[in-house]
Amino acid sequence: MSLGEIIKPECSMDRRLRLSVMLALNCGPILKGSKAACIINVNPEEFPIIINMLADTGLYYRLIKPCGKHFKLYLYRENKLYNYMSRMDTAGFLKEYGYCGASVEEMLDRLSRRIILYGVGEIKFPHELGIFLGYPVADVKGFIENEGKNYIYSGYWKVYENAAEAIRIFRQYDLEREIAVREVIRGYTIREVAVY
User: Fold this and answer.
1) Contact in structure between 180 and 28 (CB atoms under 8 Å)
2) What is the spatial distance between Cα 133 and Cα 175, in angstroms, rounded to a whole number?
3) Whole-model pTM above 0.85?
4) 41 Cβ partners below 8 Å, 6+ apart?
5) How many beta carbons lie within 10 A of that of residue 196, not counting itself?
6) Distance between CA 116 and CA 123 in Å, rounded?
7) Contact, 10 vs 50, CB < 8 A?
Protein backbone atom coordinates (compact mmCIF):
# COMPACT_ATOMS: atom_id res chain seq x y z
CA MET A 1 0.00 0.00 0.00
CA SER A 2 1.37 3.43 -0.95
CA LEU A 3 1.64 6.40 1.42
CA GLY A 4 -1.08 8.08 -0.61
CA GLU A 5 -3.45 5.22 0.09
CA ILE A 6 -2.54 5.24 3.78
CA ILE A 7 -3.32 8.92 4.23
CA LYS A 8 -6.19 9.12 1.71
CA PRO A 9 -8.90 9.27 4.37
CA GLU A 10 -7.23 12.43 5.75
CA CYS A 11 -10.48 14.37 5.52
CA SER A 12 -11.97 12.10 8.19
CA MET A 13 -9.02 12.59 10.58
CA ASP A 14 -9.24 14.79 13.63
CA ARG A 15 -6.83 17.70 13.80
CA ARG A 16 -4.28 16.02 16.08
CA LEU A 17 -4.13 12.89 13.92
CA ARG A 18 -3.87 14.99 10.76
CA LEU A 19 -0.95 16.93 12.26
CA SER A 20 0.68 13.68 13.41
CA VAL A 21 0.44 12.28 9.88
CA MET A 22 1.83 15.54 8.48
CA LEU A 23 4.78 15.36 10.89
CA ALA A 24 5.43 11.70 10.11
CA LEU A 25 5.23 12.33 6.38
CA ASN A 26 7.42 15.44 6.35
CA CYS A 27 9.75 14.61 9.22
CA GLY A 28 9.97 10.80 9.21
CA PRO A 29 13.77 10.67 8.71
CA ILE A 30 14.46 13.09 11.56
CA LEU A 31 11.93 11.36 13.82
CA LYS A 32 13.64 8.04 13.09
CA GLY A 33 17.08 9.53 13.78
CA SER A 34 18.85 9.34 10.43
CA LYS A 35 18.48 13.00 9.42
CA ALA A 36 19.88 15.96 11.32
CA ALA A 37 17.14 18.46 10.52
CA CYS A 38 14.08 19.40 8.51
CA ILE A 39 11.93 22.43 7.94
CA ILE A 40 8.16 22.54 7.55
CA ASN A 41 5.46 25.17 7.18
CA VAL A 42 2.99 25.49 10.04
CA ASN A 43 0.22 27.94 10.71
CA PRO A 44 0.08 29.80 14.04
CA GLU A 45 -2.88 27.75 15.35
CA GLU A 46 -1.05 24.46 14.71
CA PHE A 47 2.22 25.51 16.29
CA PRO A 48 1.36 24.90 19.99
CA ILE A 49 -0.17 21.52 19.16
CA ILE A 50 2.89 20.44 17.17
CA ILE A 51 5.29 21.61 19.88
CA ASN A 52 3.32 19.64 22.46
CA MET A 53 3.52 16.54 20.23
CA LEU A 54 7.30 16.96 19.89
CA ALA A 55 7.92 17.28 23.65
CA ASP A 56 10.26 14.59 24.98
CA THR A 57 11.30 13.43 21.51
CA GLY A 58 14.88 14.72 21.72
CA LEU A 59 14.18 17.20 18.94
CA TYR A 60 14.89 20.90 19.19
CA TYR A 61 13.06 23.52 17.20
CA ARG A 62 13.30 27.07 15.91
CA LEU A 63 10.36 29.08 14.70
CA ILE A 64 11.13 31.39 11.82
CA LYS A 65 8.45 33.83 10.70
CA PRO A 66 8.88 34.95 7.13
CA CYS A 67 6.30 37.12 5.42
CA GLY A 68 2.96 35.47 4.89
CA LYS A 69 0.52 33.43 6.93
CA HIS A 70 2.79 30.50 7.77
CA PHE A 71 5.78 30.05 10.00
CA LYS A 72 8.80 27.98 9.07
CA LEU A 73 9.38 25.41 11.79
CA TYR A 74 12.95 24.14 11.78
CA LEU A 75 13.38 20.86 13.66
CA TYR A 76 16.78 19.45 14.48
CA ARG A 77 18.76 16.93 16.47
CA GLU A 78 21.34 19.12 18.14
CA ASN A 79 24.23 16.64 18.42
CA LYS A 80 23.75 15.28 14.91
CA LEU A 81 23.56 18.79 13.46
CA TYR A 82 26.57 20.00 15.47
CA ASN A 83 28.66 17.04 14.34
CA TYR A 84 27.80 17.67 10.70
CA MET A 85 28.39 21.41 10.88
CA SER A 86 31.71 20.88 12.68
CA ARG A 87 33.21 18.84 9.85
CA MET A 88 36.05 20.69 8.15
CA ASP A 89 34.32 20.90 4.74
CA THR A 90 31.00 22.00 6.20
CA ALA A 91 32.49 24.54 8.61
CA GLY A 92 34.66 25.98 5.83
CA PHE A 93 31.67 26.37 3.54
CA LEU A 94 29.55 28.03 6.23
CA LYS A 95 32.41 30.42 7.09
CA GLU A 96 32.23 31.72 3.51
CA TYR A 97 28.66 32.83 4.31
CA GLY A 98 29.53 34.52 7.59
CA TYR A 99 28.76 31.68 9.97
CA CYS A 100 31.55 32.02 12.48
CA GLY A 101 29.63 31.09 15.60
CA ALA A 102 30.90 28.32 17.78
CA SER A 103 27.48 26.99 18.69
CA VAL A 104 24.54 25.65 16.70
CA GLU A 105 22.36 28.31 18.32
CA GLU A 106 24.57 31.15 17.06
CA MET A 107 24.56 29.75 13.56
CA LEU A 108 20.79 29.23 13.67
CA ASP A 109 20.39 32.85 14.81
CA ARG A 110 22.24 33.98 11.68
CA LEU A 111 20.28 31.62 9.43
CA SER A 112 16.99 32.85 10.93
CA ARG A 113 17.94 36.47 10.26
CA ARG A 114 18.91 35.62 6.68
CA ILE A 115 15.65 33.77 6.01
CA ILE A 116 13.69 36.74 7.38
CA LEU A 117 15.72 39.15 5.19
CA TYR A 118 14.99 36.95 2.20
CA GLY A 119 11.29 36.96 3.11
CA VAL A 120 11.18 40.75 2.91
CA GLY A 121 13.23 40.84 -0.30
CA GLU A 122 16.46 42.25 1.09
CA ILE A 123 18.75 39.36 0.11
CA LYS A 124 18.83 36.44 -2.30
CA PHE A 125 17.68 33.07 -1.03
CA PRO A 126 20.16 31.73 1.59
CA HIS A 127 21.09 28.48 -0.15
CA GLU A 128 23.33 27.55 2.76
CA LEU A 129 20.06 26.37 4.30
CA GLY A 130 20.89 23.07 2.56
CA ILE A 131 23.76 22.57 5.00
CA PHE A 132 21.39 23.14 7.93
CA LEU A 133 19.20 20.40 6.46
CA GLY A 134 22.14 17.99 6.28
CA TYR A 135 22.62 18.05 2.52
CA PRO A 136 26.13 17.20 1.28
CA VAL A 137 28.38 20.24 0.88
CA ALA A 138 29.25 19.26 -2.71
CA ASP A 139 25.57 19.24 -3.63
CA VAL A 140 24.86 22.60 -1.97
CA LYS A 141 27.86 24.09 -3.79
CA GLY A 142 26.75 22.46 -7.04
CA PHE A 143 23.26 23.87 -6.66
CA ILE A 144 24.61 27.38 -6.09
CA GLU A 145 27.17 27.23 -8.91
CA ASN A 146 24.68 25.74 -11.39
CA GLU A 147 21.72 27.86 -10.23
CA GLY A 148 19.73 24.69 -9.58
CA LYS A 149 20.35 23.26 -13.07
CA ASN A 150 22.59 20.50 -14.46
CA TYR A 151 22.06 18.12 -11.54
CA ILE A 152 22.65 14.41 -12.05
CA TYR A 153 19.78 13.24 -9.86
CA SER A 154 16.96 14.81 -7.88
CA GLY A 155 15.21 13.56 -4.77
CA TYR A 156 15.18 15.16 -1.33
CA TRP A 157 17.72 17.58 -2.80
CA LYS A 158 19.39 18.09 -6.18
CA VAL A 159 22.46 15.90 -6.49
CA TYR A 160 25.64 17.07 -8.22
CA GLU A 161 28.07 14.42 -6.95
CA ASN A 162 27.85 10.81 -5.76
CA ALA A 163 24.40 9.92 -7.07
CA ALA A 164 24.66 6.33 -5.82
CA GLU A 165 25.07 7.46 -2.19
CA ALA A 166 22.29 10.03 -2.53
CA ILE A 167 19.92 7.40 -3.95
CA ARG A 168 20.74 5.10 -1.02
CA ILE A 169 19.95 7.93 1.43
CA PHE A 170 16.72 8.85 -0.42
CA ARG A 171 15.53 5.24 -0.21
CA GLN A 172 16.30 5.16 3.50
CA TYR A 173 14.36 8.40 3.99
CA ASP A 174 11.42 7.04 1.99
CA LEU A 175 11.35 3.91 4.14
CA GLU A 176 11.52 5.92 7.38
CA ARG A 177 8.71 8.20 6.23
CA GLU A 178 6.55 5.20 5.41
CA ILE A 179 7.31 3.53 8.75
CA ALA A 180 6.54 6.75 10.66
CA VAL A 181 3.24 7.31 8.83
CA ARG A 182 2.16 3.69 9.34
CA GLU A 183 2.95 3.93 13.05
CA VAL A 184 0.88 7.10 13.40
CA ILE A 185 -2.02 5.52 11.52
CA ARG A 186 -1.80 2.55 13.92
CA GLY A 187 -2.22 4.93 16.85
CA TYR A 188 1.35 5.67 17.95
CA THR A 189 2.01 9.18 19.22
CA ILE A 190 4.82 11.25 17.71
CA ARG A 191 6.74 10.64 20.97
CA GLU A 192 6.43 6.90 20.37
CA VAL A 193 7.42 7.23 16.70
CA ALA A 194 10.56 9.24 17.47
CA VAL A 195 13.84 7.49 18.14
CA TYR A 196 15.79 8.99 21.04
Assistant:
1) yes
2) 18
3) yes
4) 70, 71, 72, 73
5) 9
6) 9
7) no
